[in-house]
Please model this.
Amino acid sequence: QATAAAAPAVAAAPATAAAIARPVVRDAKDQLVEIKDMVGKGMVKSMTDALQVPYMALGEEIDLTGLLKLQKALKEHAVKKYGIKPSVTSFMIKAVSMALHEHPKINSKFGPTDANPPNYTVFGSHNICIAIDTPHGLVVPNIKDVGNLSVVEIQQEVSRLAVLAKDNKLGMNDIKGGTITLSNIGVIGTKDPRPILFDGQAVIGATGRTMILPRYNERMELEPRQIMNIRWVGDHRHIDGATLARFSNSFKRFLEEPGDWMLALR
Model:
């Protein structure tokens, strides 16, 4: 006698179905932020004015391998004798000043737009602005008369300004009077920055991060080198491309050939 086939077993349904994950709905509100501090207001005005200026820009690649070796070699001595570690930024600031000695027109500001005839002022002192990132925002104080300062003295000023900026205690004398700007934005993280002219100055430079990249040596052999990009922007009303390029070449030479400083410094 045939028997009926057993029915297949049916899995028991779960007691409760798994809940579908949904993103948490946040009660976000739009917020109007008013810029009331003097530094912030000054930045708004400066950047708005800069957009009215015809400019030109050029970029350059700089091999910092030799300079970084020199910095490392001098570090222990500088700490023992002066109590500080000179940063690459301090060497770059000094290199800007030495390049300005060779190309003084770069250290200038164009005059009032309604002046007849048009004019610009070339400054005798190299008051080099540096951009400092703080909890209160970006500030741009300047180091006065860099042409008469050593790398050690420049580093002391960089450290002093950084502490004051962090504590929101920069004075007007620290902010006013800049003649050219160098922004080392690469320490935060970008390889090819593109700055905007600042405070009526004829030129601003911005450096990218240092990267280890393959480059050919004199024997056409590839070797790792420490490379940094820099971008210069100039006021094209009185700074032409050739002048800015020659200034850039001088800056590059001083950073790539630190021994040249022995001949150039006085």
User: Anything to note?
Assistant: The chain has seven helices and eleven strands.
